[in-house]
Amino acid sequence: MQHGRGVALADFNRDGKMDIVYGNWNGPHRLFLQLPTRKHRFKDIATSKFSMPSPVRTVIAADFDNDNELEVFFNNIAYRGPSANRLFRVSRREHGDPQIEELNVGEAAEPEGRGTGAVVTDFDGDGRLDLIVSHGESAAQPLSVYRVIQGSSNRWLRVIPRTRWGAFARGAKVVLYTRRSGPHTRIIDGGSGYLCEMEPVAHFGLAGKDLATSVEVFWPDGRSMAKPLDRSDMNTVLEVLYPKDQSTTAPELECGHGFVPNEHGRCTDEDECTRFPSVCPAERPVCTNTYGSFKCRANKRCNHGYQPNDDGTACVAQVAYFGGSHSGVEVGGGGVCVCVCTCVCVGAERLLLLLFSLLLSSQMT
Ligand SMILES: [Ca+2]
Ligand SMILES: [Ca+2]
Ligand SMILES: [Ca+2]
Ligand SMILES: [Ca+2]
Questions:
Q1: I need a labelling partner for 94 at 20 to 30 A (CA). Which of 22, 101, 241, 338 fits?
Q2: Of all residues in the chain, what percent carry a pLDDT higher than 70?
Q3: Distance 272 CA to ligand 4 centre (A)
């Protein structure tokens, strides 16, 4: 029996689709990457270190050091011997799944800590996230507050969407477009831990010389806003009020490489394959559009049941969607499936003709 004790939503590979990190009390922790196909919706990319079971209480996904990449913090309760808290960085890679590396969590390891929950917030307003760990369920211990000591030169932006009544807009999605690191997506949700609630703020880190160019907020009722940003908006807290009227005049947006404003004034992926039909070189002519970019592959031909791999250098078996068995003739919905060497499905009006053809061919052989 396995029990989730913390679930966080985050877009680790920055493809615009939310991924799920899942802390598991009696089993391996998981990091489910949402896939672009509908066939297989999620893939677990947790490494053996990441998935190692622990008595977890809270999972936090946040950019603690403002370097563009998200960290995952596991808060554990040392109720049957030491169980240190752990920290991982999940870094986006251009081609391939994100890289997961364990970081030195420093004093926040608390190997003897009876962690009951943890939250992330900018406690002192310096633009760097702070970590608060609570204890007390199985032994009296004081609260811990930790300050991040990495990434002090990185820029940041904090966005706080409001509802029409001025409350924090739980359920809102905030997308920040940048000049160098693509779009970053955050969900203002109800929290990610056992007995905990995270701050209702979309916190973004911007490493090096990266700059945010625009921000979009989508409320759960479908209303949205977009706002261009400039250098003066960096290292600030941006309050975004609920738009009373959906504006029909779109602002001038700089969406960043691979994105263009659509007819509603919101940044969207540019379909390079359609817009530039000759974008791929002759030796890799097959173009596949991707979020923020595109891919080219060789025109590989494969036998039935196989399909080209991502770069078109080999054929790989197609994974079947349904299994099961069938036999004989089954009639339903006015049609019929006839299975001889293979199955042929026809409508009822063609059944007599098909049976007549089969009878004729059997008499001729
Ligand atoms: Ca994603
Ligand atoms: Ca980071
Ligand atoms: Ca802080
Ligand atoms: Ca694209």
A1: 22
A2: 86
A3: 5
Per-residue model confidence as pLDDT tens digits over 310-321: 777 888 887 655
128 CA distance to ligand 3 centroid (A)?
A: 4
Kindly give the distance from the C-alpha atom of residue 88 to the centroid of ligand 2, in angstroms, as a whole number.
Answer: 9
Residues with CB under 5 A from ligand 1 (ion): 11, 13, 15, 17, 19
Overall average pLDDT of the 71-75 stretch: 97
- The whole-angstrom separation of Cα 338 and Cα 45 is 43
Residue for token pair 């608390």: 110
For ligand 3, the distance from its centroid to the CA atom of residue 225, given in whole angstroms, is 28
**How far does residue 201's CA lie from ligand 1's centre (Å)?**
19
Label residue 334 left, alpha or beta by phi (over 0 means left) and psi (-120 to 50 means alpha): left
Q: Hey, which residues does 308 pair with through a beta bridge?
A: 315
Q: What is the DSSP secondary-structure string of 49-100?
A: HHH----EEEEEEE-TT-SSSEEEEEEEB-SSS----EEEEEE--SSSSPEE
